[in-house]
Amino acid sequence: MKQASELNIPFPKKRTKLHLAFAIGWTVLGSLNALFQIDILSFGYLYFVLAFAYICLYFYQVSNAWISLDASYIYINGKWGKKIPFGDIREVKSFAGDYIIRSEQHKDINVTISALTDSQRDQFEAILKENRVSMN
Length: 136
Fold this sequence. Notes:
The protein contains three helices and seven strands. It is of the alpha+beta class. The strands form two sheets. Strands 1-2-3-4 form a four-stranded antiparallel beta sheet. Helix 1 packs antiparallel against helix 2. The longest helix is centred in the first third of the chain and has 24 residues. The protein is elongated.
């Protein structure tokens, strides 16, 4: 059972749908290339490799959280996932539609506010306040 101070924010639906659309598009181009020998961009079978990569990315993003806030840390699940303990957070700024979270170890995490729903944003701010992180 989840604790009251735990929050998992999924990847934005716009991003996941875009990756699925790219996977379908590369699959269609690869099929046209394989069936009719039409080299639209002359990638050969690279179309299927790209389609497979986008399908894997889509399923990864659907099954994992984009942002995880636990009782002791913030974890951004991206290309090179970043994990910052709440004790190391130096400041949280709201600037140009993003939350910029800076730590003592000179790690920065950017969270796009527009990708969060109102309830997720309220929960995000409540967990930061609960862990005594001041927001500027």
